[in-house]
Amino acid sequence: MSDGPTGRPDLDAAYAALAAHAGDAVLGAVFAKGELTVRLRAAALVAAVAFLKAERGFAALSDMIGLDNGPAPGEGRARFTVLYQLYNRDARLRIRLAADAEGEALPSIVGVHKAADWAEREIFDMFGLRFEGHPDLRRIYLDPSFEGHPLRKDFPLQGRG
Amino acid sequence: MSFKDLELNMGPQHPSTHGVLRLKVKIDNEVILSIEPVVGYLHRGMEKLWESLTYPQIMPYTDRLDYIGAVANNFAYALAVEKLAGIEVPKRAQYIRVVLAELMRISSHLAWIGFQANDIGAVSVLLYGFEDREDYLDIFEAYAGGRLTINALRLGGLPFDLDADLIARIRATLAGLPRRLREIETLLDENRIWKHRTQGVGCISAAEAVDYGLTGPCLRAAGIPWDIRKDIPYSSYEDFEFDVPTSDRSDVYGRYQVRMREIRQSARIVTQALDRLPAGEVLAKVPRVLKIPAGEVFHTTEAPKGELGFYIKSNGTDKPERIKMKSPSFINLQSLPLMCRGGIFSDIVGILGSLDIVLGEIDK
CA-CA distances (angstroms) from residue B172 to A80, B135, B276? Predict the structure, then answer.
């Protein structure tokens, strides 16, 4: 056992290094069902992802997940959150980063992980979040003339019209 | 007439795009300058739809994602929900799921070899691949009634047990597999045209493969022995002995070699699972109305095409708050422009085929 949030020495070491690197940009860590989620300030996201890749072996981005917390998410909660699933394949570790979008925008991590290119376009298409610094941010599934973003909770299930 | 800087449109109805994929290709005579894949023609809004359905209702929808490997989708979804809800799947069901998933992998790879050779011009191999695949579809039909969209799994286990007849039939089919694989290899391994069209074509380095998020046989063909069944085992995969085939060629031929070896490893796993099949139930007790307390999981599996997984967020009701599917084809297709750089136009279909994409799971 280890004193960190997960009780797993290897994962706790990765978390401790990230916390030391990002300082007060780390807003908290949750360990549930064997999965570690670290909440970060959006401003520190790119540096944190680059640090995990260069220094801690989290070289692979598995997936990016957009979340809509509802049109009225409640006091102190952001409407949109994006999750980043990262892998350290050598150590067989997974870590999930969570960042709240500020003003429906987040910094792009394409400069660190090429795999984020289409993933960010998908979230832009489905949720309307802009990724600052993305080289080619366009809709990926829907037609450019489509209005609205279907995975938003206030978008009707059967479409408009 | 000059063909410098000509922009050509492949698809969305081109026969070798495996569904409805459009490629915008810029060429300078025969040489590819750039490629831009355009997806979304099959977008059905699955993830939005799932937010309005209960957890068991979603299962048959997953068949329609990667419809060449339907059981792999059922499997990944079931495992994610079970992890989230804390459902313990009986050992016998875990083994039978492995049997079904590996038979699906064999079937998917056989279909792939047929499509791939056909795209490159070896039409006869298509017939071999599909004749062999037929035996596996028959097994699924005997098990659950379906051949393409099988809906073979239930949350908590399986709808049916494997009976002795079906086990004997699976064993007989696998006994004939080595001879059939040798037939295909006799046609292709040393075939001059096949080698010319696949060797040194569609290369990607190991570092690029990781950066672009490649998974599955394409990643292993770039020399990286990453297989979730081995590295983060699920559903009792740790009980079985098998190798993770890799290749250092990192070209289309390497991906062919990796898939042919994987078929043999899958057969090995199925044989072990059948030999040691534990007794007992095949379905855990799952409430009729499955309400899952608030929480989130991200669970991935090694599907025939790569890392397939589901992120599920629950909110205490019987319907999910959000489901995101991690689809291997979507991520893998991103590296097509890189693999095609500097290549010639006629290589595109071969490289695209080697990625083994299915538009059903790309477009969702």
Answer: 53, 10, 17
